[in-house]
Amino acid sequence: LLDGTYDWPGDGDLETFIPGLNAGDTNNASIIEFDFVPVSNNISFDFIFAAEEYGTFQCTFTDAFAFLLTDSSGNTTNLAIVPGTNDPISVLTVRDSQYNGSCESVNAEWFANYYGPGGLPPLTSPTNFIGHTEVMTAQSTVIPNELYNIKLVVADDGDTIYDLSLIHI
Known about the structure:
The protein is 4% helix and 35% strand. By secondary structure, it is mostly beta strands.
């Protein structure tokens, strides 16, 4: 199963905000980006992070997600952070060793479900991915009537197979 090629580029911004990723490490990046002007002083977005790397590949592949908020001064913040930590969300920062004893659990309380080893997930997976996190919230204080940019980006790390997804709740 191949889900893209190395001709489908990664994303430099994601590589900047996720520790362990270097320039050119990502592939098959999918991006949603837009400008907006808030009318209130807070934004929030509920989501789950789902990946096919959970289980077999959760010790080595950093498939990742970033929710980048940039203000009108050019300051960018990644809002996709594991709650209660400074850890950006990735397969390496939210995992449960119960599904691969070769690496320790990290923020396991935020890992929700695992649906089976390798290959395609069984039909019982509501996301069609092998595993996913609990619902998380990307949130930030903003200044009403100021221009902001949001960039949501997911990408594979070092390969073009076994994908990941951000699912809006």
